[in-house]
Design a protein that fits this description.
- The complex is a heterodimer of chains A (about 500) and B (about 550).
- Chain A has about 500 residues and is mainly α.
- Chain A has helices at about 1-25, 45-55, 65-75, 95-100, 110-115, 115-125, 130-150, 180-200, 205-215, 215-235, 240-265, 270-295, 295-315, 335-365, 370-405, 415-435, 440-465, 480-500; strands at about 35, 40-45, 85-90, 105-110, 155-160, 165-170.
- Chain A has 18 helices and 6 strands.
- With about 550 residues, chain B is α+β, with helices and mostly antiparallel strands.
- Chain B folds into 4 domains: about 5-105 and about 505-530, no CATH class; about 110-120 and about 425-500, no CATH class; about 125-170 and about 365-375 and about 385-420, no CATH class; about 185-365, no CATH class.
- Chain B is about 20% helix and about 45% strand.
- The longest helix of chain B has 25 residues, at about 15-40.
- The chains are: A mainly alpha (about 500), B alpha+beta (about 550).
- The interface between A and B is large, with 78 and 70 residues.
Chain lengths: ~500, ~550
């Protein structure tokens, strides 16, 4: 027992030594320093977390907090003893070959990577076609530049007082005064002073983002929604399911409220926020539809879709970066932003419910038996989601047209985002017309609804990740093409598998 | 006379569901193709090929007809169909609004230069604009709105407009030399391990847009006729070369007993007899001879080049399949041949190498517009954005393009042919007082574009502030902040999109009816839901 206590004490003391070593130069207290980066003022912790995640794929490095890692990297060229060498995972096979990285251990340190900067640059320049290899080289080149910028102290700007006004200066401007580890520790005073200067001038509203970042609300929401789904499918406890679903909704509402308060605009301006909002909308719809129709299946489907969206925003950070950024001028209209985009994304939520429901029933029809009356019943449930989705989509398109008329001078301009929204509407309208006149029987209606969601994904993700053109350029992103093609492949395969040899309706 | 049964059948077919679904499918497929076409080839090409093509318009008209017939077939009104009537009525109104906008709307751009009153709207239609300077006559011809080349064959006075290329790019074309004197043209590639650049040079007078010399970074590169190589590299006392630019022959003054004399003003003078005439050169001042007015005469057939002028230059001299440069250390001419260096000739600067791609004296390269499919990258057209027109004038073919107007000179008659946009004159003037672009703090990312403009009309001058989501509305026109570009020493010019949309009210009303109708339709049918069958199978059991 005594021995165990001694070992524990030793471990704790070594941990505390390690902690002080790291924290004396770069303590976690620096996380609330306001910094200017990417056109916004935010706490150092938030910027550090986003940057370290961009550089390494993870927000922590060797058990150090993002603030500590980022800070040590910034002062890395000075004589501070606590040096860190970040590592990046090289994913692309040809890039691995170029850099001589072993496929069994694809991690490469940034010090080794920066030494090969010239090689990467010349390899990218030699490629005339824009292919995945060139894109991967450009991504790595961009990471090297960010890494070097951090090391130069040019990646974050702190507030200083000049003639009673706040002036932002890069940390590199103070580097000449920092000769030793002790100088860096003394520099904390300047950093804390910059916080006081900024708060005295502008207030401490920016600290809201620190609270938001540290609450990890998306993870809590994911946990709640998984528990709700578990309670519904395994325990079949309605009250428990609804309780956890409401908890998940509360957590997601908190995310949306936080992001609205931080950015002072509707939380639907990038792919991260639209994915989150569609899942949120779908769960709200599922609760309402389930209550109105006395049908638990809606809630299960809503939870299923909500899990998908929460997984995406939690783990697909390359594709859906969570950073809150400044808006392009055309989006700076809170009224139109919160009406047009909200309506469209809510319609995607309702259509997503119909999509999951249709797939679930297709699988059930393929591997189990569903009677024709049941088919008709489930087709009607899908129809209930579709009609809300279609009305909201039509309203969203029209609101978009009015906004476009107001800010670009034309109601309709065949912009790819506009056109794909209309394509989605046309596809669903054709299905609804067929269903309404009994031209499309319930079974075909279910398959068609499952397939039609691919058009939503194309309008939502495809225009940004594949087409990447048009006036809606603020939504362009990279890295989602593989996700989208995988989605299409799986959906087509599912429809094909369920269409071949489906058990006949009894 | 159309049989009334056949007419009814036609009405039923057009207003029927099958026809509607076929049309919706065709419309959807066209739009899908359109978005991909736009992504690869740009907005203008997609508009010309699909969205504004007659076929797509016909499809929209048929959709309109189908909706109209479907509504008429369901008359007299039935209570359960009220939602249907309102939805389809809304769609018809949107269709009418779009048609009115298409027929009588105005859609263009106004470019506002700082402090300059502007009354002109530039519309999207292309026209060819021919100005005869002798008579001050201006003729215009609308150009076809097509995605592919179109034969026009239309005369504008003595100008014959042949063919229009809506998307083209200047490309090198080698043509047979028709002139009696053959001139050297050559293409090379200068490269290192990490870069390469093709250099195109020509001495031929008809070689348009291809010069005889250019710069590659700090290095100057010149193409010379081959006979000049020997004159340059061989020694002579006067260090002068006499070069006949018509025949490309050259010789040293000493070889013909010509001597440099000094004038009273201590200038070196060289007197060169040539084909019965005598040319006086001042080699220290100019390679051209003096004319009777003691001015340097650039049209003369002879040049006198001083070899001393080559010593100070960092330059590479190309003579077709041979290259030459002055060695920095020895100050001697180095001559190398591509025949001896098939992998490229190493040059004494920045690890550069040069290889010969093509050279000829019987053919010459010229840049001519050729039709090409445009290419779009990152939302911007990067290739094929040039509009070109072939013109026949006095039996010879010429090309005018959107970036290079064509100037034809015949005696005292000067004709300028340009491809332009159709213009419209505003009943008032707009003057840009100031353009302001704010950026997000600490970045170059724009956060707002704002124009402060003066509006001058019959009532006087008013000041307006135009920015994103805050247009200027006056006399049926609406002006929106659309773009900007740098103009003169740190200033900016502003571009407004300008339009009149008489169909707007119909589109808005139709949109409202569409959404309200859909809600009404679902409310009327809310009781038609299917109940769960008794003993039904649970999906997740």
């Amino acid at each position: 027992m005594k021995k165990t206590l001694v070992i524990i004490c030793f471990l704790l003391s070594s941990l505390s030594v390690f902690a002080t070593t790291g924290s004396s130069v770069c303590p976690n207290t620096l996380e609330s320093i306001p910094i200017l980066q990417g056109g916004r003022v935010k706490p150092l912790h938030v910027h550090a977390k986003e940057t370290i995640k961009y550089l390494t794929g993870k927000s922590k490095f060797e058990k150090r907090s993002p603030t500590q890692t980022y800070c040590l990297l910034s002062f890395g060229t000075l004589d501070i003893k606590d040096k860190i060498d970040l590592k990046v995972r090289i994913e692309h096979v040809e890039v691995r070959k170029l850099l001589g990285v072993d496929s069994n251990n694809p991690l490469l340190s940034y010090s080794a990577l920066t030494a090969k900067e010239g090689l990467i640059k010349s390899a990218a320049m030699r490629l005339k076609e824009e292919n995945s290899y060139r894109k991967a080289l450009n991504v790595i080149f961009g990471k090297i530049q960010t890494y070097k910028e951090i090391q130069r102290g040019g990646n974050w700007f702190i507030a200083t007082a000049v003639d009673k006004a706040v002036k932002w200066k890069p940390v590199s401007e103070f580097f000449t005064q920092l000769k030793s580890r002790e100088d860096v520790i003394a520099f904390h005073l300047t950093l804390n002073n910059s916080k006081n200067i900024f708060i005295a001038d502008t207030g401490d509203h920016y600290l809201l983002e620190l609270t938001y970042s540290k609450l990890h609300l998306a993870h809590w929401a994911l946990l709640a929604v998984l528990l709700s789904l578990f309670a519904a499918v395994v325990f079949k406890k309605n009250h428990l399911t609804i309780s956890f679903a409401i908890l998940a909704l509360v957590a997601q509402t908190a995310i949306l409220v936080f992001r609205t308060m931080i950015s002072e605009r509707a939380p639907i301006t990038n792919m991260y926020e639209t994915v989150l909002f569609s899942g949120y909308g779908a769960l709200v719809f599922a609760l309402i539809f389930g209550h109105l129709r006395k049908e638990k299946l809606f809630l299960i489907v809503g939870l299923g879709y909500n899990v998908c969206t929460l997984f995406m925003i939690s783990f697909a950070n390359d594709m859906l970066p969570s950073a809150i950024g400044p808006l392009v001028p055309v989006l700076r209209d809170n009224f139109w932003l919160s009406t047009h985009v909200t309506t469209i994304i809510l319609s995607y939520g309702a259509l997503a419910l119909s999509w999951i429901l249709a797939n679930v029933i297709l699988i059930k029809m393929r591997f189990f038996s569903i009677g024709s009356k049941d088919q008709k019943y489930y087709a009607d449930l899908i129809y209930a989601c579709l009609k809300y989705g279609v009305v909201l989509l039509a309203a969203g398109i029209i609101l978009g047209g009015v906004w476009a008329d107001y800010s670009w001078g034309r109601f309709w301009g065949w912009d790819p985002k506009e056109t794909w929204s209309l394509i989605v509407l046309c596809i669903y309208m054709a299905i609804l017309h067929g269903k309404y006149t009994n031209w499309i029987p319930p079974k075909r209606f279910i398959s068609l609804t499952a397939g039609a969601f691919m058009s939503v994904m194309m309008a939502w993700f495809g225009v940004n990740y594949i087409l990447a053109s048009g006036l809606h350029s603020y939504g362009f992103s990279q890295g989602g093409a593989i996700f989208l093609f995988s989605f299409f492949a799986v959906q087509i395969l599912l429809i094909a598998v369920t269409a071949v040899g489906a058990k006949s309706a009894s | 006379m159309i049989n009334s049964t056949k007419w009814k059948d036609a009405e039923r077919f057009i207003g029927g569901l099958k026809f509607a679904v076929i049309l919706i499918a065709l419309f959807t497929i066209s739009m899908i193709v359109g978005t991909f076409v736009e992504s690869y080839f740009g907005t203008d090409f997609a508009n010309r090929l699909i969205y504004k093509s007659p076929l797509f318009m016909l499809l929209q008209f048929l959709l309109f007809l189908s909706i109209l017939m479907a509504t008429l077939l369901r008359l007299p009104p039935k209570k359960r169909l009220w939602g249907f009537y309102v939805i389809h009525g809304g769609l018809l109104l949107i269709g009418c609004g779009a048609f009115i906008t298409y027929v009588s709307g105005i859609d263009g751009h106004v470019t506002l230069l700082p402090k300059e009153p502007t009354r002109t709207i530039e519309l999207s239609e292309d026209i060819v604009h021919v100005k005869f300077h002798k008579t001050d006559k201006i003729l215009t011809l609308p150009l076809p709105y097509s995605a592919f080349p179109k034969i026009i064959d239309h005369s504008l006075s003595e100008i014959q407009v042949e063919k229009y290329l809506p998307f083209s790019e200047y490309q090198v074309t080698w043509l047979k030399s028709t002139s009696k004197i053959s001139k050297l043209s050559a293409f090379y590639t200068i490269f290192t391990d990490s870069m390469s650049e093709e250099i195109k040079l020509s001495l031929h007078p008809d070689s348009e847009k291809i010069e005889s010399g250019l710069r590659v970074g700090p290095l100057k590169v010149y193409l010379f006729p081959k006979p000049l190589l020997n004159c340059l590299t061989s020694q002579n006392k006067s260090k002068l070369i006499i070069w006949n630019i018509q025949s490309d022959e050259c010789y040293h003054p000493e070889s013909k007993g010509l001597e440099v004399t000094q004038s009273g003003g201590h200038l070196n003078i060289l007197k060169v007899p040539h084909e019965g005439a005598t040319y006086y050169f001042v080699p220290d001042k100019s390679p051209f001879p003096l004319n009777e007015q003691f001015q340097f005469y650039a049209q003369a057939p002879l040049r006198v080049i001083s070899k001393d002028s080559f010593d100070a230059r960092t330059a590479l001299y190309l003579f077709g399949d041979q290259v030459s440069y002055i060695d920095k250390m020895s100050k001697q001419w180095v001559v190398k041949s591509f025949k001896d260096n098939p992998q490229g000739i190493p040059l004494p600067w920045m690890k550069l190498k040069i290889e010969l791609n093509r050279h000829s004296k019987t053919e010459y390269p010229t840049l001519l517009p050729k039709y090409t499919l445009p290419k779009q990258k990152n939302g911007k057209l990067v290739y094929g954005g040039e509009k070109s027109l072939s013109i026949l004038y006095m039996g010879k073919r010429h090309w005018a393009s959107s970036s290079n107007p064509l100037t034809l000179n015949s005696g005292k008659n000067r004709i300028v042919v340009s491809i332009d946009r159709k213009k419209l004159t505003l009943p008032f003037a707009l003057t840009l007082d100031r353009f302001k672009m704010d950026t997000s703090p600490g970045t170059e990312m724009p956060s707002s574009y704002e124009s402060y403009v003066y509006l001058l009309n019959g009532k006087g001058v008013t000041q307006h502030h135009v920015f994103m989501n805050n247009p200027l509305k006056t006399q049926d026109f609406t002006f929106y902040q659309s773009s900007y570009f740098p103009y003169q020493q740190g200033g900016y010019a502003s571009v407004f999109s300008a339009n009149i949309d008489p169909g707007r009210i119909f589109k808005y009303l139709g949109s409202l009816l569409l959404v309200l109708g859909a809600i009404w339709h679902y409310l009327l049918n809310r009781n038609r839901k299917v109940l769960r069958p008794a003993n039904s199978a649970k999906v997740l059991s």
